[in-house]
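User: Small ask, check this?
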Amino acid sequence: MAEQEPWDDTLVYDWNAAGGDLARPLTHRVMVLDETLRDGLQSPSIIDPPLKAKRELLRRMDAIGVDVADLGLPGAGARVARHVAELCATIRDEGLSVRAACAGRTLASDIEPIIQISRETGVIVEILTFLGASPIRAYAEGWTLTQMRKLAADAVRMGTDAGLPVAFVTEDTLRAHPDVLSELYRAALGEGATRIIICDTVGHATPDGVRANVTWHKELLDKLGRSDVGLDYHGHDDRWLGTINTLTAARAGCDRLHATALGIGERVGNTGLDVLLVNMNLLGWRDTDLPALPAYCEQASIATGRPIPANYPAIGRDAFRTTSGIHAAAILKARRRHGEWLADRIYSGVPANLLGRHQEIDVGYMSGASNVQAWLEEHGQEARDEVVAAIVRAAKRSHRTFRDEEVTALVAAALEELAATAAGSGDAPAEP
């Protein structure tokens, strides 16, 4: 965790806390369910990682404090079923804390493989069984409400009869009619479902919609006398509202949130697990250290073939990096006045230290003397005025940010020129 200074609140006036709903402390613990290995792999532009890579991702989920991992949909085929079984065995054999879950449609052909894997490995696997609930989906499928109730009840019963926990998922919950949702939940809860998963399948929701929907779910469960039933929220990012919607769901009463590494998933993707964890940490909702988070995201990127955008929040290459002369000057002054704590906050709403990173100052066409001075200091070199001036001149002629080796070459050239000038004038060159 980033170190808290005693005068922190005198240097930053926090309008989030002054008027924010999200800033209020939660009265319930919020768990995280990682969908990377299931919903995340539905992204059309990534690859399905080999088992070895999936095992490493599972270990890294454990390291960042993920509570539950959706390991896949075994009903999709033999490869998925084999991978899920091996991942369950990894949890068992390595004593990982992360718990196992698997997705499945409300069909016996999807539920049975999950039960079989649990029996073979001895690992309790939570069944996440899903059914489209919106009128548009029911119309397209030709479903009646009677058929939908039966699908929900039969699937949940199959899981609970096998002694496994079952969460009932209503797909497209944020476009579903409350009367239909109520009927489906009564059927699922009547057969022993212990959790309800609210799913914004198509990324339709706004924060207001999420708040209203979760509130309705809480009121329904209270009315049914089932306040013991857990509430999940599963969001997609089609309107780029995935993170705020997911946080709003927690604020409204959900106690488990779904997300994926780097926000991978169907269409534009799911709520990003990385950004979600950073926000939950900064809000004080989750007290887990995050230095292992960048490595998890890097592993997810390599395993799925999805590059991490340079400007990706908290994780991207540029998240804590500047070439602006104005920003560099402020960061350098802050660093000299009070070290890294102040430097880490002067131009950053997310402290780099939270993720085991640090503020980086590079040199480019927008840079000034402060950039060069900071770069030289960080690389253990004296910031001589002539050298600084020479590099600034070169930067102003450029149209991009210099690589470290290019700055090193510019430093060497400037020192060589200084030495030659000193030799020509008969003066001894100064020590570099």
